[in-house]
Each structure stands twice: as C-alpha cells, then as structure tokens.
Amino acid sequence: MALLLGVDTGGTYTDAVLIRGEDEVIATAKSLTTRHDLSEGVGKAVQAVLDAAAVAPDQIALSSLSTTLATNALVEGQGARVALVFIGFDEKDIARQGLEDALRGDPVIRINGGHSHSGSEAAPFDQTTLEQVLDGLDGAVTGFAIASQFATRNPAHEIAARDLIRARTGLPVTCSHELSAKLGGPKRAMTAVLNARLIGMIDHLIGATQDYLHRIGVTAPMMVVRGDGALISADMARERPIETILSGPAASIVGARWLTGESDALVSDIGGTTTDVAVLRDRQPMIDPHGARVGGLRTMVEAVAMRTTGLGGDSEVHLQRDGLAGGLRLGPRRVLPLSLAAMQYPDVVPAALERQCTKDRVGEYDGRFVVPVRLSGQVPAGLDARETRLLERIAAQAWEMGSLLSNRLDGSALDRLVARGLVMIAAITPSDAAHVTGVLDSWNKEAAALGLELFSRQRNGAGQRIAPEGAMLAPRIIDQLTQQTCDVLLETAFAEEDTDFGLPEDQLARHVLTRLGTQQHRGLVSLNVGLNLPVIGLGASAHSYYGAVGERLSTPVILPEHAGVANAIGAVVGQVSMRKSGLITSIGERRYRVHFIEGPQDFNDLDRALKALETRLGEDAMAAARESGAQGIRLHLQRDLRNAEVEGRDVFVEAELTATASGRPRIAR
After folding, report:
1. How far is CA 418 from the centre of its chain?
2. d(C-alpha 344, C-alpha 12), whole Å
3. Helix H or strand E encompassing 567
4. Each residue of 586-639: pLDDT tens digit?
5. Which residues lie closer than 8 Å to 291 by C-beta, 6 or more apart?
6. What's the distance, CA 644 to chain centroid?
7. Strand ranges (E), 56-175
C-alpha cells in the first residue's frame, strides 16, 4: 500500500507524519521550526519519522505540506517590502477596505488607466509614468502588486504593467485579477499586496522542503494545502502564496475529521502563534463567502470560515495597567519563550536572567532579549541606516534588550525589524508558565522561573507587585490562556448562530452575562452559558490546556491520539480541487458580454454566452487540476443567474459561473 508523507511547518514546531494507504498512521515526529534555515527543521522532522517507521525515502509515493507561516506573518504584521501599482484609482481608495493598513507605509505608484464596469478602457495606460517611477525605486522593494480598476472585467492594463515590471526589474509581480474574479478594487489590491509580501517567505519554505526531499531520495510529487483545505501543486503555491493563508488551519480541520469521524463540532487548533477555530457541519468545514480574514484584514481568498486570533503557547504576556488591580493579556505577537531561548543561547540568557533578578528594581527591558531570525541567503531590502546598523550589531547572537538599545529611536527601529521578520523578541509566554507549573518539561525550567520572577515584580495601578512571587503568576497566565480560548470559541459560536442577539459576536463573548454564565452564576438570577457542540482540541499543547476549556464551557472536549500532528495528517489526506469563475453582464437588450481573460466578447444569445463561458471555465479548471497532479478528476459546473424586475418584466442583469475540478493527487508508483 502507498506511503504518504505529510509535513506541517508551524511557528514553533515542524511536524511530520507517515500514513499507509490513507487510513493508518504508522509514525509521527516533531522538530523545532528553524526560521534561519527552514530546511533544517523540516529535515529533522522528516528524518525522524522515516527512522521511526523504518522506511526508505524512495518508498514515499506522495508528499504534502501545510504551513501556518503565511497566516502567522499576517497576524504578526510581517512580510517583505513591496510596491503597489494602483491603476485608475483615486487617492481616497487607498483608505478603503483595509488597504492602507495592509500597505504599512510601502510605496504606492498611482497611474492613469483602468477600465469601466463593461470592460471598455476608461483611460489609456500610462506606461511612461510607470517607467519613470520604476527607475527611481533603486532596489527599495522586493516585489510588486498590481491592481487596475475593473480588472476582473478586463485585465489588459494589469497584464501590461506586469510585463513591463518583469522586463525592467526581474522581481516577482502579483496581479489582482489572478487572485479573484470579484469586484472591489481596493480589497483586491490589498489581497495582491499581501500575496506579493509573502512570496519570498513561502517560496523559501517550499523550495527548502523540495530540495531536502530530493536530496534524501524522495522523488514523489509534492503538494501544498490551500486555505480551503484542498491541495495544489507546489509550483502553484509558490506563485500564489496568499492562497496558503489558513493552510495550516484548513489542514487541521481535514485532519480533525479524519482522526475523529465527528460530523458536527467546533475545531480549535492551538499552536505557538495562533489559535484557529472553525465549525464542522455534516463533516464539511464551512467556507467563508466573504474571503479569509486574518490579522484584522479581510482578503478575497476563498478559505475555510476560520476565526484566527493571535493566541498560542508562545504568545507574549502583557501587563494591563488599567484600574488599580491590573490584569494580564496574551498576544497577538509571538515571542521566543525564555525557556527555549535559554537552550538556544545558553551563554547569554540564563546568566543575564540571574543577574537581573539580583537587582533591587526591575528594569524596563529586564527579562527581554533580542535574537536573530535572518533567513539564510536573504539580503534585506528597504532598510534605513538605523535599522541596518542595528541588524549588523545583532548579527548572529542573542542580546539583552537593555544592552542593545541606546535610545527610543533604536526601539522603533527594532520594532520594524521584528515586523520584517528579521529578528525576534524573547520574553515570558504561556509555555514558560507551563514549565513552572509542571505541565510541560521540554526546555529550561529555571530560565522560565527567573523570567516569571522578574515579570511578577512589575507594579499595578495601586503600586503593588502583580504577584508575590513568580511561581504564583504561572497559574494566572494559564488561566488567562483558558479565558481567551473560551472567548474565541464563543465568538465563533455566536457568529454562526441564526438568532440575532443584538450585539456583535466579540461583545457577546465578553459580555458580563456571558462571563457569569460560564461560571454558573447562582443568585436571584440563575445563569448558564456553554457550547452545544463538542470541541475537538488540536495542537501539541491541546492536551495540556483544553480540559479546563471544556469545563468552563460545559461541553465535551475530544482530544484525538494524534492531535499534535493533525495539520500534517490533513496535509496528505485531502483532495486536489481547482475552481475557475467568470462573469457575464448585460450591455443592452439581448446583448450579453462575456468577460474572458483575454478581453470581453459579446453575444446576442444568452444560452450561447453561457455555454461559451462554461466551456472555457471547465477546460481551465480541468487543466489546472491536471497541472496540480490530480487524477480521477470530476467536473462540477454551477450557474448563478441574477435577474431584476423592470416594468413587470424579468430582465437579465448578470451571471456568475463556476467550474470546479476535483480529484485525488496522483501517487507515484
């Protein structure tokens, strides 16, 4: 029977699993994700699982990869510096649909051009201005995103800009019409910007994984999990990395269904950086019709209806100073746990923590370190002089933050380096608290205890220590993790309810009545709030934390045997599914315009227009499925015709057609 290799690269761990015949897990393994060289962590996990199963590399018939790197990068605001070519739009359009937030100060090149709603040219394409601006960028960006007005009706100007940029710069280019067939230029532009920003990161991961597998003798084809849980070829994922956002979470849902056989449940996957929650109904993950929402940004990428929040075992612990008592808050940024940093940098971290604990007063930067995360072979572009000096000083060693930063300007430069993914902060996390309480025993417990002691010396609004000693702070951090996990589960449940409760789901989840209800308040009023579906807990730390979540929400928690590698399992048991969509609009009485990729074509008969577009979409979907390595392909065609009543007559307005080609990935023999 065929042997299938699944790999998942997360923020903290890289997991590997071997499955025989699609129904039997024969070995699993974990290795720390090595951000400086991703192939190192992948290689250790793959080699460990091959050794555990006593399997030779050439016996692998299919490999597949899922990853949370794209999701984590968007949640943490990371990614390369890119330029947006904005064709035919006004300045005010940049502030719409989250585009300004997504740009984060990256350059925008606004030029004339674009098309009308009908697909005809609204203004000539301004090639001269684009050429002049390109000549002045001088290596300040690593890629380009292009969005032209009504490009989904006619992409000619996006294609012209793409060809020009590639010829003059040789850099990667993302066109918005390649990512979505829907209207909404600013939102499409934002999706293209995020795609361009992720290309280097995902290309490095896939390339490193493929190179390693080929090097050890795995010649089978490699697939990558898309955000809706389907599989695509590695080459396609390298071109469209935005489609891998929610790849890891989507794989976890597929894995949860495979591991448990449950048909209806809430699936909650806790990793090092994020907690991802989705609803499983009739054994199918719900798809978000509005596009994947990650890190506060709503994209146009079709993906599972997933609520992703910056909450994980490695989330940064913050002291909230509001009020006299103060409180704790976790995330959304992932940091390196002190217990792990002490193992990776034994000559710096443990001694520094011991010295800091002997001081009478805790300093602003005590218990915090800066560590390098530069990818091998990567030359950062777009850094200013201060950022460059700081990065060169950090080099390849860990630094006490107080020793590294000379002033507030250095602090701002450090924040930008963290956002670019070039360095990381090491600080207190729930993983450290779990080591102190004895829940975990993987890394340096003494460093975790010292870090908690330093953190506990901080003062609340009343001027008192937030905890008498570090050990007493640890259970409070874990309780905060439980509470924030319950919050996101309740948010997801409220969002999917048919009942209108009169408030947004995030407010409902944190409402005082909800809080008291989860505590089974009994006064003159009796309150009970919980979930009416079981929770499937996934992730390496789910067994450590999710028992308390189930108790607080009065619901069963299912923790499958291989919960810690569910993403890797889901990566290899899914199907290839390629979807192509197109539009037909009305341009007059009995005149129908089909918006083909090479430009619009008009018909006088609706049936002929529908058949022409259906044929093209079906051919394109089948070709894409074959290109992604599918076999036994099935084609499903869907028509969505939209009419309006005008003066008592039913008048055609537009039609959206979708062709979906699905099949199992081709397995090497």
Report:
1. 17
2. 13
3. helix 566-573
4. 988 889 999 988 888 999 999 999 999 999 999 999 998 988 888 899 999 999
5. 180, 187, 191, 298, 299, 300, 301, 302, 303
6. 39
7. 60-67, 83-87, 108-111, 144-148, 173-175
Angle at 247 between CA 244 and CA 248, to 5 degrees: 140
SS3 517: helix
Q: Which residues of 397-431 are buried (b: 16+ CB within 10 A; e: fewer)?
A: ebbbbeebbeeeebeebbebbbbbbbbbbbbbbbb
- Residue pLDDT, tens place only, 210-260: 888 999 999 888 899 888 888 988 888 888 777 777 787 788 888 999 999
User: Torsions phi, psi of 535, nearest 5?
Assistant: -110, 125
**What's the angle, vertex CA 172, arms to CA 166 and CA 177, rounded to 5?**
90
> Parallel, antiparallel, or unpaired: how do β-strands 576-588 and 649-665 relate?
antiparallel
CB 88 within 8 A of CB 113: yes
**84 - beta bridge partners?**
108, 145
* Contact criterion met (CB below 8 Å) for 193 and 249: no
Sign of CA dihedral 655, 226, 239, 162: positive
User: Tokens 């040219």 — which residue?
Assistant: 121
Q: How far apart are CA 624 and CA 662, in angstroms?
A: 10
Structure tokens, 533: 């579906």
